[in-house]
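Pair request: fold both.
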Amino acid sequence: MKLLIVGLGNIGQQYHGTRHNIGFTILDAFAQASNVVFSTERYGDVARMRLKNKQLVLLKPSTYMNLSGEAVRYWMQKEKIELENLLVIVDDIALPFGAIRIRPGGSDGGHNGLKNITSLLGTDRFARLRFGVGNDFPRGAQVDYVLSVPSLEEAEMLPERTQVTTEAIRAFCLSGLQFAMNHYNGK
C-alpha cells in the first residue's frame, strides 16, 4: 500500500519556521526520525520511505500555499495513490498551539491550501491533520500572525508537540484514519 503524506507551507527563507509552515516543520521532523532526506522533484521536495509494509511518499509542495492542490494532484496521479491514502498536514488558528485534530474531510476552514486541494481534487473527502497555532492576534492581523514565528513559550512546546504529531502520522499510516482520530484527537 502506498500513502501520500503532505505537509503544507510556503517556500522561501522568509517563511521558514513560521506558524503557517508548520506542515513543513512536522514533515521534516517525521523524515528526520525515519532517517530519510528530501530531494527536489517536480512540484516539491519529496522523500520516500517504508513503514513496515507501507510505502510512504512525503511531499512538501514547492508551489505557494494557495496552489498546493497542483502538487498534491500531480503526486497522487504519478504514484497512483488512492484518496483514502492521502493525509494533509496544515496549520489551524482555531486550535490552541500544539493541539492536533485529525478529520476524514470537511470544510477548508478558510485555509487557502486546503481550499485549493479540495478544488483540484474535486472533493473535500481526504484526511487532514490540523496542528493548532493559536489565535492570539488582534482583529485584522491574522496574516501577520500566521506568517510570524511562534512565541518563545510556543517554541519551547514545539519539540514535544511535534513528536506527538509524528506519532499520529505513524498511527494513520499503520492503523488507519479511525485509529489515529480515536487516539490522537485532543491529545
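--- second member of the pair ---
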Amino acid sequence: MIAEFKKFIARGNVVDLAVGVIIGSSFSAIVTSLVNNIFTPLIGIIFGGIDFTGLSITIKDAEIMYGAFIQTIFDFLITAICLFIVVKIMNKFNSDLHKIGKKEDHKEKEEVPKKSEDIILLEEIRDLLKNQKKGKNK
C-alpha cells in the first residue's frame, strides 16, 4: 500500500496539480493586493467612498444585511475587471514574444535555403555539359 501511494504521489499529474494550486494561490494574492491597494481606493475617490456594508433591513428579530451582499458583488466585479486587464496584458506580451520568435525562425529559414535533390542533379548535369562544350571548343 505504501509503494502504491509513492507511485501515486510521484505521478506527473499530481505534481503538476500541486504546482498549479500553489501558483494560483500566489497569483490570487497578487490580484487581491492590486484590487485592495490600487483599484478600490481609486474607485472610492471617484464614487466618494461608497460602502454598502452598513445597509440592512430588520424584520421582527432578524436583521438582513443586504448591503454586505451588494458590497461582495461589487468587490467581485472589481476583482474580475482587474483580472481581465492583467490576463489581457499577459496575452498581449506572450503574443508579441511569439511573433518575435516566428520572425527569427523565418529569418533563419531564409538565410539557409536548401536545394532539392532534383535541382542539385540538374545543376551537376548543367556543369558537365558546360565542361564538355569547353573541351570541344578548345
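Observation on the second member. The chain has a mean pLDDT of 81.
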